Amino acid sequence: MNRRSRVAFIVPYLGRWPVWSRLFFESVGANSGIDILLFCEAAPPFPLPLNVAVIQISKAELLGRLSRTTGLQLSAVSGHKLCDFRPYFGLCFSDYLQEFEFWGFCDIDLMFGDLQKLLDPRLLDQLDVFTAHDMQIAGHFTILRNNDLVNRVGFEIEDWQAKCLNPQTMLMEELLFSKALRAHPEIRLESPDSLAAELKRPFCRFGITFGFAGEVAHLESGLPALVVWQNGTVLYSDTAGSKTEVLYVHFMGLKRWWHWLSFGQRQEARESHRFSQVGYGGPVSATGLARFPWKQIYALQTQLQRSKSLLGGLSRRLLPGQAFLRFRRLIFGRGRY
């Protein structure tokens, strides 16, 4: 692939692509200053921007790369456990990173804002690591200088072998990786101030992450907030009148089926996308959001989800295999979310 930027985000993804994943790639297309190296079993079923390179890889091939990098006998790695291996991506995918000065990792349940406001050449020349959190490495947005020192810090995580071999997610790329990086005074690690402080700036170097109760993570105010992706920028506003541009919107906690009721089956590129406690779409302003009965709706939707899970579990126990599958498709649809 021809290098177009100084920064390549490494995105391994196994399995079926969620419908909302197209939003991530839409925001990638608005950021020509980065590249995405997408390692996947099958390419997403929609057009991708030019700065996404699709490298098809099987689960066995990915496991082989991780095993050779760590020297461990890995039997299976999939799902969220892949995140534990992020500190080793610089070595694992070194053959694809030779032309890049920086590599990074990120989640795909987000939309980037204008990253060029952060990845200014003057900043990149003066740092080795940037992460979008004030207290630790952020698993959903971190870039690292592509050199041997930084790429091998993962091997200095305490008990890293046991943690890699543990089938449970150990959050190695966050607190544990942070500790190992900070043990090297020669590694220049840059991070933002607290989210509350960053929101007072013209450009917030923090991303806005929605939690599982619809709250904005790392923000104590608890104010109803609206985040809008518009023509390549992400804007935050709340009912106190605060409004600023932010690095990205991470809709981590907004992925239940009810959060996407206004998200059409066929989503072409749009000029704007809105996110709030109600999920995708909804009120067009923070003041409108304050009047919206989202707490009551959230409680109703949560109860519906519990009832759905209870009914699903009961039907699985009572119905034979094929009958259960037909019942599930009839009642629950095909589980697109």
Protein architecture, described:
This protein is an alpha/beta fold and 337 residues long. The chain has eleven helices and 16 strands. The chain has helices spanning 21-29, 59-70, 89-92, 121-124, 148-151, 160-165, 172-182, 195-198, 286-291, 294-318, 321-332, and strands at residues 7-13, 34-40, 52-56, 102-106, 110-112, 129-131, 141-145, 189-190, 203-204, 208-209, 225-230, 233-238, 243-246, 248-250, 272-276, 279-280. Strands 3-2-1-4-7-6-8 form a seven-stranded mixed sheet, with helices on one face. Strands 9-13-12-11-15-16 form a six-stranded mixed sheet. The model has no long low-confidence stretch (mean pLDDT 89).
What's the CATH C level of the largest domain? Alpha Beta
How far apart the termini lie comes to 33 Å
Q: Order of strands side by side in the largest beta sheet?
A: 3-2-1-4-7-6-8
Using only CA atoms, what is the Rg?
21 Å
List the total number of helices: 11
What sequence of helices (H) and strands (E) makes up the elements? EHEEHHEEHEEHHHEHEEEEEEEEHHH
